[in-house]
Amino acid sequence: MRTVSADDLDFSDEASSLVFSDTLRFILPVPRLRDGGEPLTPPPGEKAGESFQDGRGRPIQGRGIVFYNPDDACWQAAPGDGTAVIIISPVDEAQGGKLARKVRSLAAPPRRLRLDDLKAVIRYAIDELKIRAAYNSTRAFVAERMTPIDPTNRRGLGLHWRRARDPCHAVWVPGDGRFRGPAATPQAFQDGAVILRQGDETRLIQPESFEATYRFADGRPAKAAELKVQTPKA
Asked: pTM here?
């Protein structure tokens, strides 16, 4: 199966489609975990496919939290040093309220969340609320790119809006394959995927999740079929 990376794609204005997102995400900050968390390695007995690597193919090291993102059929690894967050998306206000209550049932204040608590929230989001994706990012990214739905929220936990005029460049890659991006193992896709660049970060988004959370510059809901197509040979 082919593996595509950001270097195989052209995100110039001429070769990609300009899109924006102003929909909700649920932000679950990863606190400083006891002993730093668990090793950032494939879980015992799981078929991770390969050792964990970053988008440039460098080994991921350290400790934190390892969890599975079913939307992209990939593993995610976030450090347990207090700099990371887990983004749960797409989500609506009702789901966000349930997630916040789940967090409060496990720890108050949220900075006391343990490794097992974080994993319980992720399982609840995916298995019970049927939210498609959970992936790691950083507190710095959230502070720069998102706004809490509650302006008094200073903890970083809960529902956040993506900033409406934050431009992204998207391309459509047809066929099947894997994308070497920010996840610990390549993101997998079948029957095509959206590859999105925002600033220095490039990641795959499954078509259904993309169409639920992005729009074109004229305000129309973004459709994967209307994106500019690229077919890398990787």
From this structure: 0.91
